[in-house]
């Protein structure tokens, strides 16, 4: 049965560091099915925030791959590379209100201090030159509820750390960008891979700091290879096949604990996705954060 959540907006937010692989297809499909089974909108945002880690042409290739899999998004695409003014304006506001401050500490110094940033530069009134910007965390988020995993506890040492919103190298921090963008796009629920459970507390902290209504979270199990590595662009996970999407789409559904009937492999992509929307049950997902692939990734 399809339940209706009024005004549901979900999204898929790939970083263009390489082509779409099986692990990112799972995130795309899971967020798509969760949105469409609630008659929601499903948006796509290209997270091109970190040019040195990007691969030329990957953003377009990812979009073409989504289309080849029948995963059509609603509305226009947001690109983080076009959002710098909004990120900077928010940072400037927090700096002027003393909710944020410049920090000159290196990673090495923080490691030597025990691994967590102890607030060394909080009251030093440093200027921008060669510095990162950190947000003052006065109300640490030590737990949150995930739709699949239930209550997730965050260690206090991590939760209370003043974290970076603008990096020393001039790049905007992922946590800041993702929250400002999700607010701008009106996202109500975030469905993504379990590798992003850890920064979720910081992101909730940003919503609170911005006085914005919080979103719901559902972290999908990650696809890992037999040796326990996450399938990722950094690990050079192979691109999924754009020419023959059906077997891979059905494999992604099975990964998401669905049991598509055998005859569905003869159906059209649209029919397969339709079946997915009708039969999607996020409660059926295994509560593990990682699932070892039962097939070799290069078989896809
Ligand atoms: N861009 C991130 C990634 O590709 C996902 C961010 C998110 O879903 O919040 O891993």
Task: Summarize the structure in words.
By secondary structure, this protein is α/β, with parallel strands linked by helices. The chain has two domains: 4-81 and 178-292, Rossmann fold (3-Layer(aba) Sandwich), CATH 3.40.50; 84-175, Rossmann fold (3-Layer(aba) Sandwich), CATH 3.40.50.620. Helix content is 31%, strand content 16%. It has nine helices and twelve strands. The chain has helices at residues 22-36, 58-68, 84-96, 107-112, 156-159, 174-184, 200-209, 245-255, 269-279; strands at residues 9-12, 41-46, 78-79, 100-103, 132-135, 143-146, 150-153, 164-166, 189-193, 216-220, 222-224, 290-292. The strands form five sheets. The protein has a three-stranded parallel beta sheet. Strands 4-5-8 form a three-stranded antiparallel beta sheet. The longest helix has 15 residues, at 22-36. The mean pLDDT is 93. The structure holds glutamic acid (GLU). A motif ('KMSKS' region) lies at residues 230-234. Residues 11-112, 127-243 form the Glutamyl/glutaminyl-tRNA synthetase class Ib catalytic domain. A motif ('HIGH' region) lies at residues 14-24.
């Amino acid at each position: 049965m399809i339940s209706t959540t009024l005004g549901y907006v979900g999204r898929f937010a790939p970083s263009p560091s390489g082509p779409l692989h099986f692990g990112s297809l799972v995130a795309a499909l899971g967020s798509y099915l969760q949105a469409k089974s609630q008659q929601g909108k499903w948006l796509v945002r290209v997270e091109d925030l970190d040019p040195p880690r990007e691969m030329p042409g990957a953003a377009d290739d990812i979009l073409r791959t989504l289309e080849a899999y029948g995963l059509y998004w609603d509305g226009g695409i947001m690109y983080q590379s076009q959002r710098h003014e909004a990120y900077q304006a928010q940072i400037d506001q927090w700096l002027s209100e003393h909710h944020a401050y410049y920090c000159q500490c290196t990673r090495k110094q923080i490691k030597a201090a025990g691994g967590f940033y102890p607030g060394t530069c909080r009251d030093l009134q440093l200027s921008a030159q060669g510095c990162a910007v950190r947000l003052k965390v006065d109300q640490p988020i030590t737990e949150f509820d995930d739709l699949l995993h239930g209550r997730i506890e965050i260690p206090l040492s991590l939760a209370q750390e003043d974290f970076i919103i603008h990096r020393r190298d001039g790049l905007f921090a992922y946590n800041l960008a993702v929250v400002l963008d999700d607010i701008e796009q009106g996202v109500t629920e975030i469905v993504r891979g379990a590798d992003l459970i850890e920064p979720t507390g910081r992101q909730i902290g940003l919503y609170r700091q911005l006085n914005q209504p919080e979103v719901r979270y559902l972290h999908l199990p990650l696809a890992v290879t037999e040796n326990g590595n996450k399938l990722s662009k950094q690990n050079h996970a192979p691109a999924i096949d754009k020419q023959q999407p059906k077997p891979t789409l059905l494999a992604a559904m099975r990964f998401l604990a669905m049991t598509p009937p055998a005859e569905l492999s003869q159906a059209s992509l649209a029919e397969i996705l339709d079946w997915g929307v009708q039969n999607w049950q996020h409660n059926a997902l295994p509560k593990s954060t990682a699932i070892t692939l039962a097939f070799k990734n290069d078989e896809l």
